[in-house]
Amino acid sequence: MNRSRKQISLRTLCGCCRPGSSPEPEISRPKRRMRGKKPDVVFELLLLGADGSGKSTFIRQMQIIHGQGFNDCERAELIPDIHKNIVDAMEVLLEQMKDTKLNIPLEDPAKHRDMEMFANKEQPMDVRLGCVSRLWSDQGVQDCFRRRGEYSTTHPLNVSTQYFLNAIADRINEAGYLPITEDIIRVRRNTIGVIQYEFMLTDIQFKIIDVGGEREERVRWIDFLAAKITCVIFLGAIDEYDTKFIAEDGEEKNRLKESIELFKKIQNFQWLAHTTFILFLNKTDVFREKLQTSDMVNHFNDYKGFRKEYASNLAFVKKKFHEESTPRRPRMIYTHETCATDTAGMKFVFEAVRDTILQLNLRQYNLV
User: Fold this and answer.
1) With contact defined as beta carbons under 8 Å apart, do 158 and 56 qualify?
2) Is 167 exposed, middle or buried (0-12, 13-18, 19+ CB in 10 A)?
3) CA within 13 Å, CB half, 343
4) CA–CA separation, 181 and 191 (whole Å)
5) How far is CA 358 from CA 65, 91, 204, 337, 366, in A?
6) 360 C-beta neighbours (distance < 10 Å), count
7) Cα distance between residue 264 and residue 320, in whole Å
8) Range 360-366, long-range pairs (CB < 8 A, 24+ positions)
């Protein structure tokens, strides 16, 4: 297939490319020393998924489990992202407390001063974080957080909001703060461009290529990397079944439906016809919690199962991802239920992924 035809297909998949964007960008490769002899086998895994699906978290988990972890410089680089996660969350909470929204007053009127100081972006970050910590202790803010299901469709909070806001006073706003491993796993950070992470398992080298999930990023990278990959790992954030976003055309769309559509369209690319697909139904912990307050049928009217039952709702979402978008030869999709912030769980899942890849490539790489 020539390159011009690829471009047409990619625009169909992802929307219009930004003017002037480079089709062959540099790839960011974290430097990890490979000890011993050069590996006989290299597997390249392309990590795909919509924005917020948990791809960056997965990469960090692999670095913790199979790599050398994070040094102090790498930990320090994430501090601004942690601060942004906290500030963004408090902005959502205070906005939803307004009398035009949930109309939840502060229990302590004296904390209106904290609201004013927090809203002033000229204040130093430690001052704003102090305001967040005091506001978070207010019963009114806590009530707004407990009612997050009422506004999660249009203003979803980061799944680690409670974790980070609880840690401000004791750790995050202390002088000399350095993120701990749990902070690194939980922080939300957009992937821009392509990040490649490499590690060894026995005598096999794995290269995981993380492609930015923002809509404009998808156009810039997928065709550049496709020819090299062994398999695609696609992450779908299944907790977003009740969450919407405003598309470029102004239309309101469901985030999980967009993820399902993206997964189906990627499979239909001719140049991925023989590629193994591994599907992670991610954020199962948040999905299970949301089902208690938000019904699937309100967002997918063809759902016929029990309203709050985890198993039937999960089976429905899995079926949606596996449905064929066009009549063609069925593709084998290896599916795993995941919680990307669970290190032990992700270690187990990736071992299963490794075994699947090895089994599928035994003869090609003379592994038998």
Assistant:
1) no
2) buried
3) 14
4) 19
5) 19, 47, 10, 20, 10
6) 14
7) 10
8) 360/231, 360/276, 361/41, 361/43, 361/230, 365/40, 365/41
Q: In whole angstroms, what is the distance from residue 287 CA to residue 283 CA?
A: 6
Neighbours of 114 (CB within 10 A): 22
Do β-strands 194-201 and 204-211 pair in parallel, antiparallel, or remain unpaired?
Answer: antiparallel
- What is the token pair recorded at 212? 């930015």
In the block, tokens 């004791």 appear at: 170
Strand, coil or helix: 115: helix
Lowest mean pLDDT among 50-64, 167-181, 333-347: 50-64
Query: 220 pLDDT band (50/70/90 cuts)?
Result: low
- The per-residue DSSP string of 275-334 comes to -EEEEEEE-HHHHHHHTTTS-GGGT-TT--S-SS-HHHHHHHHHHHHHS-SSSSS---EE
CA distance 318 to 102: 34
pLDDT per residue as tens digits for the range 232-253: 999 999 999 999 988 878 888 9
Best CA proximity match to 278, nearest among 176, 356, 170: 356
Tokens of 236: 């779908």
Decide: helix, strand or coil at residue 177: coil
Residue appearing with tokens 């208690």: 292
**pLDDT confidence band for 21 (50 / 70 / 90):** very low
- Contact (CB, 8 A) for 221 and 193: yes
Give the model confidence (pLDDT) of 165-195 as tens digits. Answer: 999 999 999 999 999 999 999 999 877 777 8
Q: CA-CA distance, 279 to 333, in Å (whole number)?
A: 7
